[in-house]
């Protein structure tokens, strides 16, 4: 994950946690699927992102729409605008693939020990950005629970890699 969406890929003065995306991580997963992989070990951590894994999911065909039906701009800063999650075009091979997530943290997605509060500052987030990103991830988690019946907000490790651990 860090090789596609990591902190080491971006100069410190160019960090942008509101707009950074895990899309590249999703592209790598898609390449693994194209190569016929049926088991993927995904090491997460060291990310420059805080998008809850929405970019990764987008690369695999999931669409995130606002109330007007338009796709959200990439990055965690826009997740507050999320209205509908469309999984109709998800790469179906993902359902036939075992994905093992390797993470060394147990932080939840949101709150004082969540992705934005704990890891946001190392990604360049100001205190105001941390609050914005935490609200965005909370809204994202609510929409996932409401529309997909999956609870990621308090799942241990869901705050890893800017929330990628919950996706």
Strands, helices and their partners?
Layout: H1 2-5, H2 23-34, E1 39-43, H3 54-59, E2 63-65, E3 84-86, E4 98-102, H4 115-119, H5 127-148
Parallel strand pairs: 1-4
Antiparallel strand pairs: 2-3
EC number: 2.7.1.31
GO molecular function, one term: glycerate kinase activity
Enzyme class: transferase
Could you give a quick summary of the protein structure above?
With 167 residues, the protein is of the alpha+beta class. The chain contains five helices and four strands, in the order ααβαβββαα.
Describe this structure in words.
- The chain has 167 residues and is an alpha+beta fold.
- The protein has a single domain (2-162), classed as Glycerate kinase, domain 2 (Alpha-Beta Complex).
- Helix content is 29%, strand content 10%.
- The strands form 2 sheets. A two-stranded parallel sheet has the order 1-4.
- The mean pLDDT is 95.
The CATH class designation is: Alpha Beta
Uncertain runs are none
What's the alpha carbon Rg, rounded to whole Å? 15 Å
Distinct helical segment count: 5
For the biggest β-sheet, the strand order reads: 1-4
Q: How would you spell out the order of helices and strands?
A: HHEHEEEHH
Q: What form results from the Cα inertia axes?
A: globular
How many strand units?
Answer: 4
Determine the CATH superfamily: Glycerate kinase, domain 2
Mean pLDDT: 95
CATH architecture: Alpha-Beta Complex
- SSE class: alpha+beta
Give the tally of structural domains: 1
Give the distance, in angstroms, between the N- and C-terminal Cα atoms: 13 Å
The proportion of residues in beta strands is 5-15%
For the largest beta-sheet, the strand count, sense and barrel status come to: 2 strands, parallel
Helical fraction equals: 25-40%
Pfam families: Gly_kinase
Keywords: Kinase, Transferase
GO molecular function: glycerate kinase activity
InterPro entries: Glyc_kinase_flavodox-like_fold, Glycerate_kinase, Glycerate_kinase_sf
């Amino acid at each position: 994950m860090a090789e596609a969406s990591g902190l080491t890929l971006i100069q410190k003065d160019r960090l942008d946690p509101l707009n950074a995306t895990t899309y590249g991580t999703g592209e790598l997963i898609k390449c693994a699927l194209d190569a016929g992989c049926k088991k993927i070990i995904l090491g997460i951590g060291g990310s420059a992102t805080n998008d809850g894994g929405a970019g990764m999911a987008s690369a695999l065909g999931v669409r995130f729409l606002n109330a007007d039906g338009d796709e959200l701009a990439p990055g965690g800063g826009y997740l507050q605008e999320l209205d509908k999650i469309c999984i109709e075009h998800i790469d179906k091979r993902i359902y036939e693939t075992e994905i093992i997530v390797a993470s060394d943290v147990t932080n939840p997605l949101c709150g004082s020990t969540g992705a934005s509060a704990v890891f946001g500052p190392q990604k360049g987030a100001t205190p105001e950005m941390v609050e914005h990103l935490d609200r965005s991830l909370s809204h994202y988690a609510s929409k996932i629970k409401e529309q997909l019946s999956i609870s990621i907000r308090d799942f241990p490790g869901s705050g890893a890699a800017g929330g990628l651990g919950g996706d």
